[in-house]
Amino acid sequence: MLKALLLPMLCGCVLLMDAPVEADDKPDCKNAQTQADMNICAQKGFDTADKALNVQYLLTRKAAKARDADNESIPDQQGADAALVKGQRAWIAYRDAHCDAFAYQVHGGSLEMEFGLECLADLTKKRTAELRILEDGFRN
Length: 140
Description:
Elements: H1 2-17, H2 35-70, H3 80-103, H4 112-139
């Protein structure tokens, strides 16, 4: 009888030890070993890049609006902010579509999510640098 009770309890403990990692556990992104950890790290990389982009975009918009205000009396010198917004919207559509296509290199495989997220992070970092240059141009 005791064996009949212990066996399920022991199996349950083994199953718990093999259970998926809790959300609070953070993978070592410098040494990610599983595809799940690599995906989590790729998501973190994109999230970090996206936050930096959003901060830079607000700074660039502020500079574009200031340029428009400085040139208020010259109608053909207006529109920096509107052009920036239009360009950013087009860039987001490009980035998302390009990275979808990029991930198709490994479509259906375990690397698809990681490829897509790393592409998003890479293009987002590049766009942040472009926006920084644009901000400088608006201020000069």
